[in-house]
Amino acid sequence: MSKGGFVRLSAALLAASLTAAAIGRAPSYRFDPGEASQGSIRFYAQAAQFRGEPGRTRVEISYVLPLENLQFLIADTAYQARYTLSVLLFDRSGRQAGGDSWERRLTVGDYASIGKEHLINADTLGLEMAPGRYRLKVVCTDNNSERQGMIERPLEVGDLFERPLALGGIRFERSLDGGFSPWAQKTYGGGLGPVSLYLRLYSAGPDTVVLGFRLEGMERGGGLLEASDTVAVDGVREIRRAIDPDSLPAGGYRLAVTAGLLSRPGQPFYQGVEEVRVQNPGSGGGEIESSLEVLRYVAGRKEIRQLERAAPGERDSLLEAFWRERDPTPGTVRNEARDDFYLRVAEANRKFSLGIRSGWRTDRGRIYIKYGPPDDIERHPFEPEYPSYEIWDYYADGVRFMFMDTHGYGDYRLMNPKAERK
Asked: What is the mean pLDDT of the chain?
């Protein structure tokens, strides 16, 4: 996908990151759990570092913005949104050391598609900085409504010219429409495809480098995948690596990446750790019970009983048949109904989880999975006489849901359950 374009997805975005790996320095493991933005505009971002001009490092900020966050206004026969993405870096004394702003204008022909088909805008922006420690602030402003979202965190900019061998990146991507798009959510599997990485190797001359990848579950019963590549590099080499997580149980994983010379085994010049999430409810193992439970939102009682009584091998066949019957485009590789469902589950987990309680188990999560993103959300977070509440409208379905945080700790309960289809 070209920079600045926007992509049509079915739903769900999860887990975000801003990566600040130690690059071209003494090898050390760094763990960065990542984060999504705070505020009324929700977006996701990651920072990857590459060589710039001599003595400078190019910091590339890739972001993903769900368009349901933006206010679209009618313009002639279409609908238009405008937003500004600002990237600011501050030194230790708090003075601004660098930054820039980019304004984007987006147009869609059908207002309902913004929520129902879940458009996103994905882009990559770059700044050249001197190596050092900074505080990074990324701000997204909806120019029509003046609402904002922000990510703020420390960022260590490495010196990629310090050593003759260096690794630049790592940027997480997703394969879309025959190309690659930034995927700062770092969530894969369950219709989202393989874990996809982009990185660059730099060398002062011809060398052979061994790249190691280890994907290990952070939770009890999590899986493990290991892979390695041996690559030749002379100057600069771009590398993309895909790791298929479909054999792994759903959950959080640590991805360890190492790089070292083939001639010096056990002496890596780069080591880094990232966190990714595998969204793969149909993978079996400890996740099968949850998988069947969430399927109750769209499956009939008879279908659920068959799945519960089936042996593990037979259950896989029944699940395939279940989704095959709902495939809107049979004969194609992609099953949009299945992908859309699991993407909505992932988004519900991202939006509505409460501590150890998964988002799909909440009232808002259930409605989100069954109906998709609302066409409109009316939020009332600071009512003096009432608990916080939200009103969700689905225009095509002619239905409205009201959720209220009756206890004040974020657990919004559905107040009009009769409106929900069974």
From this structure: 82
> Among residues 242, 297, 238, which one has the least CA distance to residue 421?
297
What fold is seen in the domain 6-278?
Immunoglobulin-like (2.60.40)
Would you list the DSSP string of 190-257?
Answer: TTS-SEEEEEEEEEEEEEEEEEEEEEEESSTT--EEEEEEEEEEEEEEEEEEEE--TTSPSEEEEEEE
CA 19 to CA 137: how far, in whole Å? 13
- The CA-based angle 77-82-87, given to 5 degrees, is 160
Distances (CA, A) of 132 to 52, 87, 358: 14, 17, 39
Parse the chain into domains and list their residue ranges: 6-278
User: Which residues share a beta bridge with 228?
Assistant: 212
Report pLDDT digits (tens) over 66-110. Answer: 887 788 888 888 888 999 999 999 999 999 999 999 999 988 877
**Three-class secondary structure of residue 306 per DSSP:** helix
DSSP state, residue 297: T
CA–CA gap between residue 14 and residue 9 (Å, rounded)? 13
Provide CB contacts within 8 A for 220, sequence distance 6+. none
Q: Are 144 and 119 in contact (CB under 8 A)?
A: no
**pTM: predicted TM-score of the whole model, two decimal places:** 0.64
- Residue 103's Cβ-side half-sphere holds a number of Cα atoms within 13 Å equal to 5
Residues 339, 356: Cα–Cα separation, whole Å: 25
Contact 271, 29 (CB under 8 A): yes
- pLDDT reported for residue 287: 45
Q: What angle do CA 367, 67, 404 make, to 5 degrees?
A: 35
